[in-house]
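Look over this today:
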Amino acid sequence: MSWAGPDDVFLSTSLATYLDKKILVLLRDGRKLLGLLRSFDQFANVVLEGACERIIVGDLYCDIPLGLYVIRGENVVLIGELVHCFVYCSVRLDSL
């Protein structure tokens, strides 16, 4: 039996596609943790490297550094990859 590589699980729901990528983890108590996904198991226990807790108040946010963080799977509500998209829009002055 051969094991699936990262290319084989591209369209699957496996966390293997997120390994070594920056992710956001939403916890059951409402906290939001960001960090590099280093490891996971079948119970959604995850290890984040360079983790920080993001606190959002209105339009402002603050990141509190936590370091290496192990999260128990029963506390995980959502895991998603963080993709930084920069949208540039140009406004013509004569259109205002």
Remarks:
- The longest strand covers residues 46-57.
- The CA atoms of residues 1 and 8 lie 14 Å apart.
- Strands lie at 22-27, 32-40, 46-57, 60-71, 76-81.
